[in-house]
Every structure is written in C-alpha cells, then in structure tokens.
C-alpha cells in the first residue's frame, strides 16, 4: 500500500514542496516543527483543502490530480483533529454512530462494540460532549473516525491539546489500536515522545520539504538529521517479553542484541514491546563493566561519531545486534577512549530509562 | 423537536399545513358590495349599512383608508364597487381616467369644518378667540391632501391669521383629520380644526367647546361618490348609490353625523 | 368580540404562519449561501436583503402594488400566463409579508450558520456525509437556535404588519383585512373599546405563542446548544 503525494504550494512566508511516495503500513509519523506544513499536507490528503497543484493517489486510486478532485466524503479517510470536535447535538453514542451509519454494512471493518472497547468508552455512551473531559472527548473522536471504516486514518496532533495526564491515559489506547487494527495511520506530531511510542515509519518535514523518510529506528539514529541532536533523542527497539522476575519486579525483554531488564510490565510472555532508549542514558565502556549498578549491558560496535549540538558532547551511533542505538558522551571521553568507527565496546543502559511511561 | 425537524415526514406535513391554511374561510352572504370609504365616513357608513341591508337585502363591506391610498389602489385595479371619497378631486380624476360608470358621480355628503377643543370654555368667542391669541398650538390637517385641512387654511386666511400663525410656528399639521383630532383630544394642542362628524355625539351635542366658521369662509367640502366601472355588481351598486342619495333615513343619518346633504 | 374582528384575527394568524413557513424554506439556502460564500456578490446581496428594513412599510406596499398590479410589469407577465394579479388578495398579502419580513429570517439564519464555523462540517465530510447530508444532519440542527429566532421574529413581525398589508391588500373584510388594520379602523372611528379588545387578544396570542416556543427550547434537558467544537 502506498500513498503517492505531490504538493506544491506557495504563500507569503510559507512554501510546501513535497513529491514522495509513502509506504503505508502501520503508523507513519509526519514529524516536524510547528509551521513546517504538516497539517497543510494532511488536510490536502484528506481533501479538506483543495490545493491547486497537488496530486494525491492512494493505493492506485486517484484522489486528486490536474483533472480530478475526489471530495472528502468520497475518500475513505478518517480524520482526527487537534481539538476533539464532537458534534454538540449528539451524545457520545450518536457521535459514534454518525460515521457508522453512513458505511454500508458490507464495508464495515470494525464493529461498534469493538471500537468502544478499544478506546475504553464503555461508561460514557449516554453522556453529552460537554460533560466529558478533553481526553475523553478525543477518545470518542478517535473511535468515531474508526467506526467510519476508513482505509486510511489521519491524525493531526491529536494529543497536543490535552494535558499531560490525559495524554498519558490515551497513549495506551493508541498503542492498542495499532496492534488490534490493520488500518494504516498517518500521525502528525511535533512531540518526539509520541512518535517514538507509536510510529513505524517516520517522515521528517523541514520548512515545507521532506528532509528524510524511512523506518523509525533508522531515522532516529541518523546523525545527519536533527532528531538525534534533540535533547530527548534516542532510539526505539522492538523486543519480546521473555520472562518476569516478580521478586525484583523486573521484566526481561529479548532484543536482537541481547536482553534488557525493565520495570515489570503486566504483559504476558511473548508480547511484543517497544523499548525507548534515550541517547543521554547510554554510557560506553571498552571492557565489560564489573561490579556496576547498571543492569543492562550489551555488546555493540561503533558505526560513527558526530558532533553534538552541545560542544562538550559527542553523539555516537552504534550497532547493537540488528538494532541501531545512539549514545551521548563527553567529547573528552570519546577522545580518551579512542572511539572510532568499528570500535567494539559495551553499552550500559540505566534500567530506569527503559521503563514505558 | 429535533426528531420532528429531522424526520422526513416533516417537510410534507409542513407544506400540507401551509396549503390548508391558505384556503380562505368560506364567505357567508349573497350580494356583497365592496365599498371603498374615506376613513372619516367609516363610522357613518357603519350606521347606514344595517338600514340598507334591511331595505335591499345586500351587505356592505367597507374598506376604509385614506382617500389618497384608496385612489391609488383603485387605479391599480382594487376590487371595489363603490368609492366614497373624502373630496371631489379624486373622483373627478377617476372620471377623467374613464374608471367610473358614466354619470355615477354625485356628492353624497358635504363636510363641515369646526374648530374644537375638548375643554369647555376654551373657545368662547369663535373667531375672536383666534384673533386674541393666548394659545400655543392649533391643529390643522395637512392642507395638501386633506380637504378639511384645506378648509381650515381657507378659514384662517379669511381671518387674516394664516401667515402670522405659521410665522409664529403655532400651526401643528396632522397627517389626516384623525391625527389632527387626536392632537386636540390629547391636549397636545389647544384646539384643532376637525370635521364636525368627528365631534358630534349621537345626541347631536358637541362636548367641549367649538366654533363653526361661516360656510362662506371656505370652499364647500364636497365628498363625492362614484361607481367603479370594474364592478361586477353594477345593479346592486346603483341601488346603493340611489338609496344613499334619495332615502330619507340615509339623509337623516348623514346629517346627524355632522354633514350636510347635497341639496 | 365581533365576527369581523375574529375573521381579521384569523387572517392575521394565517398570514403570519404561511409567511413564516415559506420564508424559512426559501431563505435557508440563501442564508447558507451568504454564510459560506466568498463571492463578491455577497455584500450587495446582503444589502438588498436588508432593504425592506429601510423602506417605510406603506412605501414598500405602494411599490409592490405598482409592480404586481394588472398594469404593472410583473402583473402584465402574469396575465399573459392567464394568472390573475395577486394584488388585493390573500396571496398578495403573503407576497408583501414575505418581502417585509425577509430580513428577519435571513439575518438570524445567516448568523447562526456563520457561527457554526467550518469544523463541524469538515468532520461530517470525513465521516462520509455528502454535502446535502451534512447540511441536513449537522448544519441545520446545530443552527436550530437561529431557526427558532427567525421563525419567531418573522411570525411576530408579520402579525404586527400594517402599512404593507393595507396598501397591497386593500383592507377588504374577510379577505385582506388583518387584525392590525381592524384595530386601526376601530381607532379611526373612535371605537376604542373594540380596538382595545382586539389589541389585547392579538398581544395575548402572540405572547402565549412566544412563551410556548421559548419554554420548549430553553437550555437544559432537551435543549440544543450551539457549540463550536470541543
């Protein structure tokens, strides 16, 4: 599945030139700073804004080109806006059924009860929008979009209008969505943390241009991109829960480069997880560390070094098994340890850094 | 309410109601004459109607308005049978426009102008009161479109007061004689030139105080009637105008209302 | 109260109801267009819609009479089609009232549609609602307050109408004599008792109607509030 996108737009103080083909599988994050054109692009894909010189082709179906323009209601897109935008004249149930009733039963891919369960809306069905909190409203909005059985779900910074607690409450639902449904998602965000938790692929947008696009881990660890230089830059590694140690309240995750211990998770053995490792939580040792408090120690190979934004630090890109990882160490240490491409060493990851928030 | 608005039956139901309400109530009577009547004669016409109904069996349906407005409507094809104007000018114009039944124009009443105040003793010496001054405002109907106003102006001119009172800003002009009467009745002016028919009571007495200017001071206020050529009820209309002109009971009522009959 | 007065009252109520119903149906698309268009024609059309507010009612009635009368431009066209001129008939009253009360329906509807903002309809589009469907199931319910205001204003305004109906209707009892004209006639002939009775009845009916409408739609249970988004 692919989304061919070609957009050229020029306005005073803003220009957008995108010509790319995005593989649509799972969650593709559209990441960039505010004002870089992410929302414009998303609205163009949805057909909410008709940009003159644009071509949108989803899975071989032409949604827009020089001669045609398929209006939004005929494109099979779901859209979750930044502000929850529930219909004031319906209660929660009515909102949810709005899209559902407009899909012929044969084309429905998700049932009412399933959507309610996925977003945890069981007790809220009779409530009216004004009686809900921001986080609840957004969950209803997401479920509502899903119930229209879209072939592509577009989410425009759905969590940015919420407070930290609400965000924390919704993210697990979004993660579950990801696992439970096969609807591809384009997720716009300027929050790296959200992207790390949810995305499979990343498109980095800078000043109206696609700077880079590709699998999440690859882009996160590329030293030529600004992502690694961000304060909370790092990597995301997929693993599988291997075992639990209730005595020490730890869970063990098997990754390609070894095994990580994280704070015990209420997940069954065999469950796939994502592990986020920030560059600042990774330290390096040339010899296997002895008698250290740090539990997670893995062998790694240095791939390259790169200047960090902070002149006292250096960014080190490492290969750990099949995964890529970033470490941020002082430049002095890098020189003293004579780090260079090809150096084989050990990475030390503080356990605390691996906990899922 | 929401469900009602949204149900697909709502629109047809609403339309049905609209159409049903459009159908007018069935009218009752047999021969009905539509009479366009100047507002000042409406009350008198209402008293004449039952007598005429008794005499002929026909009903009168008065449509009152200002003479000017009625004239415009008649030239636009208003479905009146007979026009009882407050002046002679408009019926004359209709005649020259060929809108009336030939020879049907006649004077059905002659108006009398009277200077009146609701306060007893306010107008003691008639013309002398006017010359003496000592009042703030006199009400006069608009001489341009009300014959009673024109008459009032003629009276004041004959007394040599018209220009002076205008200069002293003591003339208050009412749009029609009803408004002029209201000025006096409400005390907003000291006295007004009104139609005698407005202030004469059913017993023939006038409350308050008044002065009847000599008829020589003003042009006769002939109120003319015409049968409109578009009438579908020519015979009944002629019967009515004939009755109005000749029946003694009609003459009695018209006189009692403060008019002269054209004799 | 006399039979003639009751008839006049009935004519007034019918006139107000029919005028309001027709205006709501015809003005909704116009108001929607005014609220959502970016065409340059919007400003002049907006101004034209407001014109009936500016003209004195008698003058408005006068011009309508000239236009629609048998000798007038529209009247002559109607005659060519074998239709009678609507002046001095109830139909003429409806036409005159619709023009007279037009701004009172278009403006609240237009304002209500404008207040919706684009978001609710965008959401509906992403949920597979076609433009007509969006209008009926989202725009109209969310603008229901505007519809209510428009209906109430039009009804009350038409009930009290005088100059236009007098001119274009001809004050024909049983046909075009409305309650307001009947009251005026009573006042003209100094029949103040009858005038007061009819006035009081008219006011009472209007008051009860308004009370009923506002009670049924007050905020709270069963009410509909206009929200922008949440």
Strand and helix map with partners:
The complex is a heterotrimer of chains A (357), B (263) and C (230).
Chain A: E1 2-11, E2 14-23, E3 27-31, H1 38-46, E4 53-58, E5 61-64, E6 77-80, H2 92-100, H3 112-118, H4 134-147, E7 152-156, H5 164-180, E8 185-189, H6 192-198, E9 201-206, E10 209-215, H7 216-221, E11 234-245, E12 250-255, E13 258-263, E14 272-278, E15 282-285, E16 296-307, E17 313-320, E18 323-330, H8 331-336, E19 344-349
Helix pairs in contact in A: 2-4, 3-4, 4-5
Chain B: H1 2-6, H2 10-22, E1 32-38, H3 39-56, E2 59-65, H4 67-75, E3 82-84, H5 89-96, E4 106-111, E5 113-117, H6 127-132, E6 138-141, H7 147-158, H8 162-167, E7 171-174, H9 177-185, E8 191-195, H10 196-199, E9 209-211, E10 221-227, H11 234-246, H12 248-256
Parallel strand pairs in B: 1-2, 1-3, 6-7, 6-8
Antiparallel strand pairs in B: 3-10, 4-10, 5-8, 5-9
Chain C: H1 3-36, H2 42-54, H3 57-68, H4 73-80, H5 90-116, H6 119-126, H7 131-142, H8 144-159, H9 163-169, H10 179-188, H11 192-216
- State the end-to-end CA separation of chain A: 32 Å
Task: Provide the low-confidence segments of chain C as ranges.
Answer: 220-230
Note poorly predicted spans of chain A: none
Q: Which superfamily, in CATH terms, is the homologous superfamily of chain C?
A: MetI-like
Q: If you compute it from the alpha carbons, what radius of gyration of chain A comes out, rounded to the nearest whole angstrom?
A: 22 Å
Q: Major sheet of chain C, described briefly? A: none
Cα-based radius of gyration of chain C, to the nearest Å: 20 Å
What pattern of helices and strands is seen along the backbone of chain A?
EEEHEEEHHHEHEHEEHEEEEEEEEHE
The overall pLDDT average of chain A reads 88
Query: Largest interface by residue count?
Result: B-C, 33 and 45 residues
């Amino acid at each position: 599945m692919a989304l061919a996108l070609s957009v050229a737009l020029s306005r005073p103080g803003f220009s957008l030139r995108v010509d790319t083909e995005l593989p649509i599988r799972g969650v593709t994050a559209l990441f960039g700073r505010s004002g870089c054109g992410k929302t414009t692009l998303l609205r163009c894909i949805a057909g909410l804004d008709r940009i003159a010189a644009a071509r949108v082709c989803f899975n071989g179906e032409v949604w827009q080109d020089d001669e045609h323009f398929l209006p939004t209601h005929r494109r099979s897109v779901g859209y979750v806006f930044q502000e929850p935008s529930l219909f004031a004249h319906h209660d929660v149930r009515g909102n949810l059924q709005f899209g559902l009733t407009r899909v012929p039963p044969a084309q429905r891919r998700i049932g009412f009860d399933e959507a309610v369960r996925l977003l945890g809306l069981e007790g809220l069905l009779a409530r009216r929008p004004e009686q809900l909190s921001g986080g609840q409203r957004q969950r209803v909005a997401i479920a509502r979009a899903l119930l229209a059985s879209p072939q592509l779900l577009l989410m425009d910074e759905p969590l940015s209008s919420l407070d930290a607690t609400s965000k924390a409450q919704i993210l697990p639902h979004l993660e579950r969505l990801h696992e439970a449904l096969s609807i591809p998602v384009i997720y716009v965000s300027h929050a790296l943390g959200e992207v790390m938790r949810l995305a499979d692929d990343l498109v980095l947008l800078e000043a109206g241009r696609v700077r880079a696009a590709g699998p999440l881990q690859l882009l996160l660890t590329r030293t030529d991109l600004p992502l690694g230089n961000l304060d909370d830059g790092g990597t995301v590694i997929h693993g599988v829960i291997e075992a639990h140690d209730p005595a020490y309240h730890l869970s063990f995750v098997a990754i390609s480069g070894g095994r990580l211990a994280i704070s015990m998770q209420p997940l069954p053995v065999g469950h796939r997880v994502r592990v986020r490792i920030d560059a600042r939580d990774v330290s390096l040792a040339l010899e296997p560390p002895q008698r250290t408090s740090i539990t997670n120690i893995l062998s790694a190979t240095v791939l390259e070094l790169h200047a960090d934004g902070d002149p006292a630090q250096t960014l080190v890109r490492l290969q750990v098994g099949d995964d890529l990882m970033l470490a941020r160490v002082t430049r002095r240490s890098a020189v003293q340890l004579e780090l260079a491409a090809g150096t084989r060493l050990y990475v030390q990851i503080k356990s605390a850094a691996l906990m899922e928030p | 309410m929401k469900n009602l608005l949204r149900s697909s039956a709502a629109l047809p139901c609403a339309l049905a109601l609209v159409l049903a309400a459009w159908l007018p109530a069935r009218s009752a009577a047999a021969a009905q004459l539509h009479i366009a009547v100047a507002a000042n004669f409406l009350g008198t016409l209402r008293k004449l109607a039952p007598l005429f109904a008794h005499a002929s069996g026909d009903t009168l349906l008065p449509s009152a308005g200002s003479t000017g407005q009625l004239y415009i409507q008649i030239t636009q094809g208003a479905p009146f049978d007979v026009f009882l104007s407050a002046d002679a000018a408009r019926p004359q114009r209709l005649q020259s426009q060929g809108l009336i039944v030939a020879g049907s124009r006649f004077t059905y009443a002659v108006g009398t102008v009277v200077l009146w105040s609701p306060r007893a003793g306010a107008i003691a010496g008639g013309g002398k009161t006017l010359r003496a001054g000592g009042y703030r405002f006199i009400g006069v109907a608009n001489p341009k479109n009300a014959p009673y106003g024109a008459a009032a102006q003629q009276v004041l001119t004959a007394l040599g007061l018209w220009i002076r009172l205008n200069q002293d800003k003591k003339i208050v002009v009412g749009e029609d004689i009803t408004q002029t009467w209201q000025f006096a009745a409400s005390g907003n002016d000291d006295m007004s030139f009104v139609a005698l028919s407005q202030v004469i009571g059913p017993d023939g007495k006038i409350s308050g105080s008044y002065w009847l200017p000599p008829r020589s001071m003003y042009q006769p206020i002939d109120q003319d009637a015409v049968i409109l050529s578009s009438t579908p009820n020519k015979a009944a209309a002629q019967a009515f105008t004939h009755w109005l002109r000749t029946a003694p009971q009609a003459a009695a009522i018209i006189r009692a209302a403060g008019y002269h009959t054209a004799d | 109260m006399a039979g003639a007065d009751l008839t006049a009252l009935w004519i007034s109520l019918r006139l107000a109801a029919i005028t309001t119903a027709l205006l709501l149906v015809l003005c909704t698309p116009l108001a929607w267009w005014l609220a959502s268009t970016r065409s340059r024609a919007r400003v002049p059309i907006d101004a034209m819609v407001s014109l009936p507010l500016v003209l004195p009612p008698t003058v408005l009635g006068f011009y309508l009479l000239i236009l629609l009368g048998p000798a007038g431009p529209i009247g002559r066209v109607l005659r060519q089609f074998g239709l009678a001129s609507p002046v001095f008939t109830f139909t003429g009253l409806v036409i005159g009232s619709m023009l007279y009360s037009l701004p009172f329906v278009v403006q609240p509807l237009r304002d209500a549609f404008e207040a919706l903002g684009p978001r609710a309809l965008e959401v509906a589009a992403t949920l597979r609602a076609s433009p007509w469907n969006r209008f009926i199931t989202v725009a109209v319910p969310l603008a229901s307050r505007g519809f209510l205001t428009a209906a109430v204003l039009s009804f009350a305004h038409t009930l009290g109408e005088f100059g236009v109906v007098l001119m274009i209707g001809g004050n024909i009892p049983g046909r075009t004599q409305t309650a307001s004209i009947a009251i005026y006639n009573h006042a003209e002939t100094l029949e103040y008792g009858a005038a007061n009775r009819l006035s009081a009845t008219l006011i009472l009916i209007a008051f009860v109607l308004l009370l009923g409408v506002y009670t049924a739609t007050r905020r709270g249970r069963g009410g509909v509030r206009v929200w922008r988004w949440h």
